[in-house]
């Protein structure tokens, strides 16, 4: 008999939300150019646009806000943050930033030269932008299983060692400053990588003098999946597995708006003091002084406590991934195609299968996300051809193999009843999928277009 489980917290404060009429939502999505990023939050019922910066902080973190040290230089809260990162992640050098993309920018600028190649396990939008902006070329070396939504391979975030080896042989190790390794790969559906794979990557790169840089934004969730799926780690704590993951790298960028349970903040963590010195020089120019980066003292205090709290026991991450699994299983039971295995931070609908009557250049995932909002007020986001952008040289669309709609679940925000509403509304949209039209651009930004692009129905 399967036992029920409950969240490892109780609710102390609530924020009212309201359902709008379908007519209201039809007007709202039209005014937003059929882009869920451009909707007003007040017009959204259940907001699954992102899990970034949308977590509910604990009473311990809120108490920390009152203790934040707002000294311009040498803030006590900064040193509390340094201690938390050293304890939980194991990195000695900390460079605080306003959020993850600030860390990505600095890392790219200090390591990438024009003409360099940066391999990675599937692109992420802002990460690839910063790599290309610095003059580099991103090369995808993820395993092929990641491109099959229904393959049940447990570690679809793994690096393909043959692809990586072929790139090293082709361009030379001196043209590869580092490999960008994302834990719990977002664009693949929140899919983890194994410790065995990471260790092999670290050894191979070490042989060639190539740095291993993690995107450790969701490394906690990756550690949970290692505990569940990788032989030999069943009895390890998630905190110990997280430290093991980080030990197989030379540094990491972290958007603290995810695992770390805060609404703003991030950092670049490094082992090499000389590399950290270069990073701090850019930090002062682009973000702020080296002891606050882009954060206030209270932000750093809440972040230090969030890092401590997330890994204190396995209870938090067990409940966090459990809620995602609950929604995924409800959708699977309804026959709705989603990326499998169910990932760590959200459910990814297979828009290519659901909207099979539309070609990819009519943006089926974008259209599906808009229709889900109209149906129920649930806000999701596109992860397909719009997010992939255009080739900077040819100007042609990138055509990703995965055309997905992401339902990212904020941490400690919604109940299982909210997940039931989401599942029922998506089932209703799925039943009427063949009547949905595609979209075409009315406004297309030059880069990171998914944030601000506008569309209209294609006829």
What's this model, at a glance?
The chain is of the alpha/beta class and 459 residues long.
Tell me the number of structural domains: 2
The CATH superfamily of the largest domain is identified as: Type I PLP-dependent aspartate aminotransferase-like (Major domain)
Low-confidence stretches: none
Order of helices and strands: HEHHEHEHEHEHEHHEEHHHEHHEEHEHEE
Q: What is Rg?
A: 21 Å
CATH architecture of the largest domain: 3-Layer(aba) Sandwich
Mean pLDDT: 97
Instruction: Look up the CATH topology of the largest domain.
Output: Aspartate Aminotransferase, domain 2
CATH class of the largest domain, please? Alpha Beta
How many β-strands, per DSSP? 14
The largest sheet has its strands arranged as 2-8-7-6-5
Helix content: 25-40%
Percent of sequence in beta strands: 5-15%
The SS-based structural class is: alpha/beta
Coarse morphology: globular
Q: What can be said about the biggest beta sheet? A: 5 strands, mixed
Question: Distance N terminus to C terminus?
Answer: 52 Å
Number of helices: 16
